[in-house]
Amino acid sequence: MISEVDIKLQWVRDLLMRRQLDGVLVSRVCNFAWLTGGAVNYNSVAVDAGSSTILVTADCQYLLTNNIEAPRLEAEEGLAEVGFRLRVGPWDGPNPAYAALVDGKCIGADTPRAAAVDVGDALNQLRRNLLPEDIARFRTCGKACAAAMSAAIARVQPGMSEWEIAAALAAETLARGTLPIVNLIGTDERIFRYRHPFPTRKRLERQAMLVLGGRRRGVVASLTRLIYFGTLPEELQLKQRACAQVDAAMIAATRPGKLVGDIFQTAKDAYASCGYAGEWQRHHQGGLAGYVPREILANANSTARVETGQVYAWNPSIAGVKSEDTLLVGTDGNEILTSIAGWPTVDCEVEGQSRQRPAILMA
Predict the structure, then answer these.
(1) Dist CA 280 CA 277 (whole Å)
(2) Is 1 a residue whose pLDDT tops 90?
(3) Which of 188, 201, 213, 238 is deepest in the core (most CB within 10 A)?
(4) What pTM, to 2 d.p., does this model score?
(5) Residue-level pLDDT at 176
(6) Which domains does the chain carry?
């Protein structure tokens, strides 16, 4: 039986032939995870490229790493077992195998390297093709993120600082084997001011918004939830209904064959019909998800088409509110991967059908 890794390696080898290359170096965190079935080649979430690199040639795949990373990559990631040949160098100097394998060859790379051909965009395209194993990974990640969000928001109380709320969200996410690479917390007036509220020392009075992007075995699922302590003001109720309606319209439009640009137009039309025509200009609306939080950000000129088996995360927002989940495009319908059982919902009607989207939780 052909494995996931074998299929992806063949895609890269097809790229070698098309571009007439002798090999391709893969270092970016997202590409490394995609090609290996979820392996980790970094030790800091702040980097885009890890310290270990894969070299794919026409007849072999090498793992170029150092003596710090090699034991874990071999024992815990199992890369040698799936056909990667480890070439280990010292942590404090160049890997001698690198020159032997690369010098004098026509090599492509997904990061800037001297004399290498840039194949970053080509690998981005390949990475967006999800296999059943990628989809299974997404389902697991989505469930973990939803459970972490539910548990964290249950711990939120007035008087907590945004830092403390972020700590709770991070702890619940990590406890479920998932890394919180996006952890944004806004409270009260900061939700109205900022679409990306990085947590601060400010203490919660009435309203909190928690935004999570969780990475598990490479894939990233995203969701947002809001909580309000006390009687929810009518203004916020109306805004959340409108935001939910935009989200529902976008989700309904995310079907195989549909242009991403047309879905963006659907969002603009929904904002306008709800009375918030200019809000789409104040924040991106999301897009295709994968081994980075957004593989493609939707805009009016997006020519990509939705395909069955793709994953999208839309995130429409209106000052003070937001609606966001991660969904899988299925043959017969869309599956919300980050749904939280028992969460209050807004009933939205789209093309004569009722769709439920998250409401603001009242505590």
Answers:
(1) 7
(2) no
(3) 213
(4) 0.96
(5) 98
(6) 4-127 (3.40.350.10), 132-362 (3.90.230.10)
